[in-house]
Amino acid sequence: MRILLKWILHAVALLCVAYLYSGVEVHSFGAALGAAFVIGLLNTIVRPILVVLTLPVTIVTVGLFLFVINAWMFWAAASVLGDGFQVHGFGAALLGSLIYSVLGMLIESALGGLFAQK
């Protein structure tokens, strides 16, 4: 139940990103669900590999290169999905991923309190 709720809330977060920032376009809630799924899949499989491979650059930049990796994941999801979810350039991917990450932290915080172990 928690995973389904997280997926739906992350899709809503993508719709919020598209509403707040014109560099990201989401054409429907179905497209947002698909994009949230692909972003989650990329963050689970590809992101850890990229973090390990770029560890020296991340250390030199004091962790700021992780923002670039997040933007790549956001942009990659848009290129995989095509017309339903679009990101207009790397700068838009960077800003869109930052907004999406902040909304994701809010979702995780809210769900942590909702599904707290008693």
UniProtKB/TrEMBL annotation:
Keywords: Membrane, Transmembrane, Transmembrane helix. It comes from the Bacteria. The chain crosses the membrane at residues 7-24, 30-50, 57-78, 90-116. The keyword DNA-binding does not apply. Pfam families: Phage_holin_4_2. The keyword Protein biosynthesis does not apply. InterPro entries: Phage_holin_4_2 (IPR007165). Signal peptide: none annotated. This is Phage holin family protein. It comes from Comamonas faecalis.
